[in-house]
């Protein structure tokens, strides 16, 4: 389904959003300076403060995921780079018709790219599934017989993590390289590498039996979390994001302390036994 850039997506603000903090998927971008609601043309003008030298950016309503009226904060499904690279907004000229056409094309194209990326893994997985169907029927407990999606992220999921973490050169990396790069970025390279030795397979089965997810898998369901935060809030956010029971159980086992950023959460997950 094409992104309707000027329409709210399941979000119907009933309050003035001016002054609300705005969070991208990888961090804050500023505060709402102006919120416009017109027939078919809903958008926000955001003051970026020192992030990009005090400039303002225009965000169409279609990129807003949710609004937290209690915290006066709203969340968008774009990265800081995507927002920074959008057509520049001239506050003196305002949202002219020409500018609105350009911004609509920019964000609609980004949404189309995301949709293609999400569809691609299914085609690749089905080919591998057909190719290895005979060996799967006769599997006897090797690591290849275990469904990969429940134990570790796919290459496409790792790529999305690398993209959010702004890891350079990610488009040229294979799965193992992506896992190492994401792990290093989050301070968990040893956990992300997951060697294929028999001892590591034994550890993976053991940790899985205790309901432990790996840090990358946990972070997939914590996008948009506002830090600092505590364990209870992490569990609730993961549940709202549709996290699996394994991820929720892992978060519930974390120490009841304050977490300043995603890296501290990943480090705590890595220390669980």
Report on the structure:
- With 273 residues, the protein is an alpha+beta fold.
- It has twelve helices and eight strands.
- The strands form two sheets. It has a six-stranded mixed sheet with strand order 4-3-2-1-6-5. A two-stranded antiparallel sheet has the order 7-8.
- Strand 2 (27-38) and strand 3 form a beta hairpin.
- The model is unreliable at 119-150 and 188-210 (pLDDT under 50).
What are the main properties of this structure?
two-stranded antiparallel sheet, alpha+beta, six-stranded mixed beta sheet, 8 strands
How would you concisely characterize the structure shown here?
The chain has 273 residues and is an alpha+beta fold. The chain has helices spanning 80-84, 97-131, 133-137, 148-151, 155-164, 175-185, 189-193, 198-209, 215-220, 231-240, 245-252, 262-271; strands spanning 21-24, 27-38, 41-47, 56-60, 64-68, 73-76, 229-230, 258-259.
Task: Draw up the topology in text.
Blueprint: E1 21-24, E2 27-38, E3 41-47, E4 56-60, E5 64-68, E6 73-76, H1 80-84, H2 97-131, H3 133-137, H4 148-151, H5 155-164, H6 175-185, H7 189-193, H8 198-209, H9 215-220, E7 229-230, H10 231-240, H11 245-252, E8 258-259, H12 262-271
Parallel strand pairs: 1-6
Antiparallel strand pairs: 1-2, 2-3, 3-4, 5-6, 7-8
Helix pairs in contact: 5-6, 10-11
């Amino acid at each position: 389904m094409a992104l309707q850039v000027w329409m709210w997506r399941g979000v119907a603000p009933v309050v003035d959003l001016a002054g609300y903090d705005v969070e991208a998927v990888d961090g804050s971008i500023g505060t709402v300076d102006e919120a416009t609601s017109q027939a078919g043309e809903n958008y926000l003008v955001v003051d970026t403060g020192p992030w990009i030298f005090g400039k303002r950016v225009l965000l169409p309503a279609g990129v807003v995921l949710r609004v937290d009226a209690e915290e006066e904060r709203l969340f968008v499904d774009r990265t800081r780079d995507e927002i920074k690279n959008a057509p520049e907004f001239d506050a003196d000229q305002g949202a002219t018709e020409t500018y609105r056409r350009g911004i609509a094309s920019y964000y609609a194209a980004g949404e189309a790219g995301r949709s293609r990326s999400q569809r691609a893994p299914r085609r690749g997985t089905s080919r591998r599934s057909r190719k290895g169907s005979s060996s799967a029927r006769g599997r006897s407990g090797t690591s290849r017989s275990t469904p990969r999606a429940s134990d570790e992220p796919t290459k496409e999921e790792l790529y999305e993590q690398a993209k959010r973490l702004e890891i350079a050169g990610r488009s040229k990396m294979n799965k193992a390289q992506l896992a190492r790069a994401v792990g290093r970025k989050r301070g968990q390279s040893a956990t992300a590498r997951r060697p294929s030795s028999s001892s590591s397979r034994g550890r993976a089965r053991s940790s899985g039996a205790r309901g432990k997810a790996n840090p990358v898998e946990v972070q997939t369901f914590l996008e948009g979390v506002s830090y600092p935060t505590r364990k209870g809030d992490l569990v609730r956010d993961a549940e709202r994001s549709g996290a699996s029971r394994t991820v929720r159980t892992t978060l519930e086992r974390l120490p009841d302390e304050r977490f300043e950023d995603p890296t501290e959460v990943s480090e705590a997950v890595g220390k669980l036994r």
